[in-house]
């Protein structure tokens, strides 16, 4: 058998990459779902963050 024949042989399985790698969840699937926040909660968090940075002198 030549080297060219080695690379041209039939695969053991005719499954595609998607079928072979199907079962492993991505990183996003491993995280718990996040609850949606309101605009008011987002603004409050931004205010707390800015106050914390101001207190540390990094703003």
UniProtKB/TrEMBL annotation:
<feature type="compositionally biased region" description="Basic and acidic residues">
    <location>
        <begin position="1"/>
        <end position="21"/>
    </location>
</feature>
<protein>
    <recommendedName>
        <fullName>Histone H1</fullName>
    </recommendedName>
</protein>
<feature type="region of interest" description="Disordered">
    <location>
        <begin position="1"/>
        <end position="59"/>
    </location>
</feature>
């Amino acid at each position: 058998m030549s080297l060219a024949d080695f690379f041209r042989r039939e695969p053991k399985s005719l499954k595609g990459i998607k079928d072979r790698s199907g079962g492993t969840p991505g990183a996003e699937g491993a995280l718990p779902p996040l609850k949606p926040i309101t605009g008011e909660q987002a603004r409050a968090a931004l205010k707390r963050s800015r106050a914390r940075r101001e207190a540390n002198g990094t703003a």
